[in-house]
Amino acid sequence: MITLPSGQNVRVWIATGHTDMRCGFPSLALRVQEVLKLNPLDGNLFVFRGRSGSLIKVIWSDGQGSCLFTKKLDRGRFVWPSAEGGAIAISPAQLSYLLSGIDWRHPQETFRPTKVG
Domain of life of the organism in this record (predicted)? Predict the structure, then answer.
C-alpha cells in the first residue's frame, strides 16, 4: 500500500477513460501535464487504468524521486468512472478500496449488532 505523507494536502486523481499500459512514468507524467493540466511532480497521486480493466498504474513524486506502482487483478476489474478525457479526485480511503478491487463509489458499511440485555 502507498503510505501518503501525513500532514500534507495530498490528492488522488483518477484519469478517466483508458490508458496505454505500455507507458512508463515519463509518458504518464506527460499525460498528466497535457491532458489533465496538472503538475505530476507536485506530490499528488495519479491513477491510470488499461483497456481490459484488470491493470492500473499509479504515479507519484515525493520530492526526492518519482515512483510508478502497478497492480493487476487476477480476477475481476477495477471500477472506473465512465467519463472520458479528464480526471476526478478521490480520497485516500477510496484509493484503498480501489486497490482492493472494491467499488470505491458505493462502499457498504457492515451492520454491527447491538448488545441486548
Answer: Bacteria
pTM: 0.83
Does some domain include residue 114?
Answer: no
Q: State pLDDT tens for residues 54-80.
A: 999 999 998 889 999 999 999 888 888
Residue 75 lies inside a defined structural domain of this protein: yes
- Residue 113 is assigned to a structural domain of this protein: no
Phi (first) and psi of residue 54, to 5 degrees: -100, -5
Residue 74 CA to residue 76 CA, distance in Å, equals 7
* 70: containing domain: 12-100
Rounded CA-CA distance 23/21 in Å is 5
